[in-house]
Structure formats: structure tokens, C-alpha cells
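pasting for the record
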Amino acid sequence: MSDEFLKLLAESERTLDQGFAHLPPNPATPLGPAASAILQQVATRLHDNYPYAHPLYAGQMLKPPHPIARAAYTLAMSVNPNNHALDGGRASSAMEIEAIAALAKMFHWPQHLGHLSSGGTFANLEALWVAGQLAHTEDGTPKAIAASDQAHYTHSRISGVLGLPFISVPSDEHGRMDLTILEALLNADKIGTVVVTLGTTAIGSVDPLDRIVALQEKYKFRIHVDAAYGGYFTLAANLSSETRAAFDAIPHADSIVIDPHKHGLQPYGCGCILFRDPAVGRLYKHDSPYTYFSSRDLHLGEISLECSRAGASAVALWATQQLLPYTPGGAFAQGLEAGHTAALKLHQRLKESPHFISPASPPQLDILFWAVRAANPEASSRLAQLIFDEAAKRDLHLALAKLPLRFFPQDSWQNSPQAEPDATVTCLRSVLMKPEHLLWLDQIGQRLDTAALTAIGSIPR
């Protein structure tokens, strides 16, 4: 933590304290030597983590929060506001409404209803809860939720919690929803909501939302866009034409989920649910005998399934948006573009490597995956684990993923059971979501090559 960060935080704390200076003194709880010793233990125990903020961490979907988000969150915790009701967080609730409006504007929604949540899982739950109440047969039976087999697993789990039927739609060789199969299912009139994933968490694939919107005009179903990971890429100017078309169709969706704690530079947990039609707010209506009395203005708990929610999350997001607005071509958008460029460059390097097998299609966002060249998928999977371990010894932290063989060219292995639809291989996977990854590509590539040579050389001939 830099001296500049601590100085700015101390100055802001003094300004915050002045707002309550008229109150009688209330001595702060002393910390003392015992607290100091405990915090030293905390700091030491936190060493037992991967270096998530460093560019050599290129594994899971973990992006460090921006310093202004950390500072604003810490500052807000001096008040510890609760954004359920205005009784618990007037200022932070107002900031949340403004932050939500900025997200809706990014998706070209002039009207909307939405709020922050603890994360994408709960935000998706709210979207499907609303869908289940609005999409049903004439006799009131809820219609099914449909999502790709590459969609996040929580959609099927949430559907079960809500008592809604769920249909898994197979994906194509690029990991995108197979629209031929989807249309056949829609023709049976059992699907009420299609979950369209713009950036799957495994491989970053983008379902063709533009073409699904065309199907919606024919079959009349709700569209929920799960853009928890990929939503901010709507600002990126360097997407392929196919990916761009999907993002440009977002304004036609009925609901959107996006996670500011992924690409939005926020601390956990900060998700967001947006509805295009504000009238869905009627579905949330409830009475509380002890809240919502301090003001006639909207209390966010009146449009949320969650009750207590950290107001500090709203304050941190609002502050970050002021520093880095959601402007195409701006600094925030350029950071997204850098991650996508890094993924494209690493994909090309892997294609040229004698050690690895890459999918034919380049990454659509900033996630890429690759297999290890071997006689068969089993040997490839074993080598992937060895390379993963060897890379970590060199401070390069990747991820592993078990993925279908159909994501790779058919001649990738000499002895491959690719005729089996469920056949998989363990792959190496990387999420290059830090802008700095573009500058560190040579370091990443060199360490990966060294790890591969070491792992392959350790296999008995």
C-alpha cells in the first residue's frame, strides 16, 4: 500500500469526520499492542495466497480493485452504511442509484430498474425469479429456463431453487449456444426465458445474442443476458464483428447481470441486476413494519430480494466511475481492449508452439485455453497438470479446465475418442484481464515455454 494511498485516505477521513463534528465527543475504541500483534498475524497469514494483483497471475477471473475503489470502500466503512433502507444509508443509496444509472447508460437503456447485489449469483437469481413470474403458460404454469451447456452452472441450480423447469441447450464447437437446437426447443413452446451468456466463465465464448433476438420476434420469450463476466466489453472497440454484433443487441434484452467486481475494478462482492422495464418493480412489493418510514423516496430494499447490502460497495463503484467513466475510447475501455489484445497475441503464440494445441477460433474476449500436444487426451491431461505445477514454480500462475474435445481441431490427437460427445481433456487456461498483461506477454510466454520443456522432459521415454 503506497504512502500516497494512505495520505489520500487520511485526508478523506478528516473531511468525513468534520461532517459529524457538531456531535458530542465519542471516544474511539482503542486498539493498542494486542490489536497490532493480531494485525501482524493477519498480514502474515494473508501471504498464503496467490499474487492475484500481479501480472504473472494469469489464472482465474481475479482482477485487483482500483486504488480509488479500495479507498472509497474503506472510507465508507467508517459509516458502515446499509443500502436496504434510507434509514441505514442515505448518501450511499443515492450513490448506488447514480452508479446503476451509469451502468444502464452503458447498455443504452434510458429507462431501467436495478440495484447492486452481493454478486452475479444473487443477481441472476433475481432475474430468473422475475422471469418465472412473467413467463408462464395460460394456466399459470411457469415455462422453462433455457441456457447453454457452457453457461454458468448456477442457472440450473437457481432454477431448481425457484422450482422452475430448466433446459440445457448444447453448445457448438466454439462453445456458443447451438441455435438450431434452441429453435427446435422453442418450437415446442416450453421455454419462457433464454439465458444468453456474453462471456462464459470457462472459455469466454459469446452467445449470438443478435440472432437470438431475431428468434424472440418469432417465438416470444424473455431474454436474460448473463454478462457477469463479459458485460463491460460492450465498451471495447477491438472486438470481432461477430462478437460486436452480439454486444450491440444488448438493448433488446429484458434483463442484464453484470459484476463490477470482475472487470469493473471493484472489491468483492459487487454484482448488479438491471431490468429494461421498470414495471417489474411491482413484483418486489412487500410491507415491513419497521423500515421505509424515514423518507417517501425509493428505498432500494423495495426493489431487491436481498435485505442488508453493503453501502460501501455502492460508494466504491460510484467513486471509480467518476475517475474512469464508461466512455468508448476512454481509459477504462482501453484497459479492456488491452486484455483482449493480450489474449489474441498469446493465442497466436500458442498456435505457433510445438508443445500446444489451440482451438481454431481466436478468443472472443480475454479468456483463452489450450491443450498440450500428446498422443491422446489422457496423456495431454497429465502433461497439463505437470505444466501447471512447473509454471507455478516459476511464479506464473495459470488455471486448469476440463473441456470438450470438440473445442479443438479433429486431428489434434492420434488416438482420440472424439466421436464420444462427452469426451473431455484437461486444458491450461488463462484470463488476461489486467491491462498490464499485454506488457508482460513475453515474460508469460517465456515462463510457459520453460515450464512446458521441463514437464515434457520429465516424462519417461
